[in-house]
Write a structure and sequence with these properties.
The protein has twelve helices and five strands. Helix 9 packs across helix 12 (235-247). It is 58% helix and 8% strand. The chain has two domains: 3-83 and 251-256, Glutaredoxin; 89-247, Glutathione S-transferase Yfyf (Class Pi), Chain A, domain 2. The radius of gyration is 18 Å and the shape is globular. Strand 1, helix 1 (16-27) and strand 2 form a beta-alpha-beta unit. A five-stranded mixed β-sheet has the order 4-3-1-2-5, with helices on both faces. By secondary structure, the protein is α/β, with parallel strands linked by helices.
Length: 257
């Protein structure tokens, strides 16, 4: 397949929902191109591509997929092996329900908590949101940082109340994972599925796995480091790190722009 015919993943590098889309492509070994979008303008680009204003957006075989769950479903249809959906119908439905649960509860919550801790640091925020972009983007983000900080706190949201709820939702996700595992290695059945991929990908800011392909804050802001440390003993935390170690694998991207 010519490079121009490959699927194109439009992404934010420092994003847990984008990590979910990347992981699905990589897990299935689907060659693709990645194009990083500046935060703030990503919603405009997403809509111009035919998405809903969010990322990731995967353009594949003329189809525009603007939601990470839709990306997994489309990949499952086109590239069924290795499967992310359990074979058993009841298990498949349970896995899809967990995918939706973590996407609606954990995803927004951990993002609010993370950025509430990140935004007070200009250097950490700018480094995180501009990685992979042209140098002038970092210069511009530094100059516009006060506006970025206010806008992000409102739009994510990342104010104190949202952060409090987000920390609670993150802890609740670990509770749900641990109850679901009940001594097993995987959330549904005996093998890795979309439920495991979703939960682990959305937890990457918490577990800070070495398998994450892009830059992570080093060090994390002290408030976030304290939150991470308070949960590091949890079975769900260790499980998420183990999912990255076992299943994150190598990138299937052939080019990054």
């Amino acid at each position: 397949m010519a490079s121009n015919d490959l699927p194109v993943l439009w992404q934010l590098r420092f994003s847990h929902f984008n990590e979910k889309g990347r992981w699905a492509l990589d897990y299935k070994g689907v060659p693709h191109r990645r194009r990083s979008i500046p935060p703030g303008s990503h919603s405009i680009k997403s809509r111009r591509l035919g998405g809903t204003g969010t990322t990731p957006v995967l353009v594949m075989d003329g189809e525009v997929l603007g939601d990470s769950s839709d990306i997994v479903a489309a990949l499952e249809r086109r590239h069924p092996d290795p499967s992310l959906y359990p074979d058993d119908a009841a298990d498949r439905e349970a896995a899809l329900q967990l995918e939706e649960h973590f996407g609606t509860e954990l995803g927004p919550g951990i993002r609010s908590a993370l950025f509430n801790a990140l935004l007070p640091s200009r250097d950490a925020t700018v480094a995180a949101i501009t990685q992979g972009l042209a140098p002038f983007r970092r210069v511009a983000a530094n100059a516009l940082y006060p506006l970025i900080r206010v806008g992000a706190r409102r739009s994510l949201p990342a104010d104190e109340e949202a952060a409090r709820r987000g920390r609670e939702q993150t802890v609740a996700a670990l509770d749900r994972i641990e109850a679901q595992l009940n001594g097993r290695d995987y959330l549904i059945g005996e093998r890795f599925s979309v439920a495991d991929l979703t939960a682990a990908a959305l937890l990457f800011p918490l577990v800070s796995p070495p398998e994450f392909a892009y830059e992570l804050p080093e060090p994390w802001p002290s408030e976030w480091e304290e939150f991470r440390g308070s949960l590091a003993h949890r079975r769900g935390y260790r499980w998420a790190a183990e999912m990255f170690r076992r299943h994150r694998g190598r990138s299937a991207a052939v080019a990054e722009d």
